What does this fold into?
Amino acid sequence: MFCKFPTMQGRKQSISASRSMARTWLAAGLLMCSTTQAIAQANHNTNLEADVDWSDFSEMVRDLPDVLLDSLPERQRNDPDIQDGVKRVALSAVASAAIDALASDPDHPVFIPQVNQFLNVGQPNSDTTYRLARITPGGSYRLRGRKGNVRMAIIAETGLLPGNASQSSDEPGAPQPIHDINALGVDEDGRFDVLLSAERPDGYNGDWWQLQPGTDRLLLRLVSADWEREVDPALSIERLDAPVRRPASMLVDMKTALSNLINVTNFLAPVYLHKVESLREAGYINRLRKMPESTLGLPGQVYYEGAYELDGEEALIIEAKHPARCEYRSIIVTNDVFETSDWFNNQGSLNDAQAAVDRDGILRIVLAGKDPGVPNWLDTAGYRTGSIQGRWANCDTQPIPTVRKVPFADIRKHLPSDTPTVTKEQRETIVRDRRAGSQQRPLW
It folds into this structure.
């Protein structure tokens, strides 16, 4: 759907069109879908030819970082951190798209990694494992496996999105339903078995999810708060109305794979590159706002966001009256190119299993680039600018936290007197434990 890259001018026009569409999506608060008009206009400007070859891909990879960097405000282009960040975003987009291009077969689907700590594009949530399976609209699929006990295990249907060379429609389609693995029945071994199809087969009495017309992808999100104790589901997917055997003649066609690779890369790489700058332009610096609802957001989940700016001797105190009932909450930080801060090796995110509420019912988070010696430290990893994003899931209230900038030396003056002290040795243990817990979750 996006462009072929025959010339430098064509490449810049294609990325510009992708960037323009990304700005439209950001303004609308969407994750991966836009309005029909915006998609159709982008497709008109960036139609991909079917006869792509390896040189088209290699040219795109060669020029992508420079084109992305050129799209940023001039004051950011000479920043070494941003230059490196843009290259990482470009490489993450290529890597994620390459896995998709090689593994995507709607007749023989697999849930493959989409974004994570190492495919860090589009600001993944540190508690969420994201996987994607391509399917054929109208097909019949069986999903089965072990249920696990994570907070949320959700499969969202998505359809007619950018990044499919065989797609015949310019329309993104309406928001599609979600399916809850945790709501499925299980046998005595804790295993589930569910059919996904357009219609329930006659005489079938097992678990069944209705597949909506136009769905060509299934987005799996597994959300865990207690990384060491919660167990992720293990699941498989198979198509029932097509032969299971796949001879060599049915392997992925490389022209189609390269087309999809270019399309998905051009969609992923620029889509959120300007997000932090857009928050600054809107005046949300060291302030938070409710995020507009997304067509791929989860029901019952409310997000808040804002940009942060700190020098080395400042901190932000983030406060909110905690809901009386809340299934899940989290807060993360990103850098200026919207990469989620490294949550494996830093305390770069906090969820309800990791950040306690104070005795007065207030959740207090301290955002700083160095350790303030308090439990609820949110580590910027040394970045002085970036963004904050939080979420409340299935809570009875969804407060937008307040933010105060304070001198680093005065942090404890703004916290309850009984706030515990975390020593350097204790922090080392905490981070090593979270590193182990995050690695022990299945990423691939």
